[in-house]
Design goal:
This protein is of the alpha/beta class. The chain has a single domain, classed as 3-Layer(aba) Sandwich (Glutaredoxin). The strands form 3 sheets. It has a 5-stranded mixed β-sheet with strand order 5-4-3-8-9. The longest helix is centred in the first third of the chain and has 22 residues.
Length: 193
């Protein structure tokens, strides 16, 4: 009986250790560094590369899953304020590991006017230090990057609250553009599930 309890306890401790190792923060893409390139398909099966957005600001947001409460709220926030971001010369792109068909259904259901890129192997999310890989399950972490017209990361948001995130992004864009600064540290807010 005691051997079974100790064996079970050892298994639980091993599982907890492996889980903590997988969830550890990796080296992060920092403000001022060159944004990793990508070549991904959107919900209309059109290819998008980072170089397609050279010369303008790009809001690149990673999200876990189409049609879930937090991801829907975030996407609809970008949809609702797309004019504000457009007036700041910024394009918006969402990226998740969902497939293009799932993206098409999500974009159609919520009338999303921006590309949703499919990153099925998580390679792009990983390049941006935004992939959570639990072996059989992987998804993009809710991170956002503002990429400057020169292709450098100008701001990074790791703690995203879908309720006010678009306002934070717009504020950071205004600050970046008014200051002429290549990067700013975005305000932190507690994450929301």
């Amino acid at each position: 009986m005691i051997k079974m309890i100790l064996g079970g306890l050892a298994a639980v401790l091993l599982l907890a250790s492996v889980t903590m190792w997988m969830l550890r923060p990796g080296s992060q893409r920092v403000e001022g560094s060159i944004a990793p390139d990508f070549d991904l398909q959107d919900q209309n099966n059109q290819s998008h590369r980072l170089s397609d957005y050279a010369g303008r600001w790009l809001v690149l947001y990673f999200y876990p899953k189409n049609d879930t409460p937090g991801c829907t709220r975030e996407a609809c926030g970008f949809r609702d304020d797309i004019g504000v971001l457009g007036n700041l010369n910024a394009a918006v792109i969402g990226i998740s590991v969902d497939n293009t068909r799932s993206h098409a259904e999500f974009a159609r259901k919520y009338q999303l006017p921006f590309p949703l890129l499919s990153d099925p192997d998580g390679r792009t999310a990983s390049a941006y230090d935004s992939l959570l890989n639990l072996g059989v399950v992987r998804f993009a972490r809710r991170h956002t990057f503002i990429i400057a017209p020169d292709g450098r990361i100008a701001a990074r948001f790791d703690k995203v609250d879908p309720a006010n995130h678009v306002q934070q992004v717009a504020g950071a864009l205004r600050t970046l553009q008014q200051s002429g600064n290549a990067h700013v540290q975005p305000p932190t807010s507690p994450p929301q599930s």
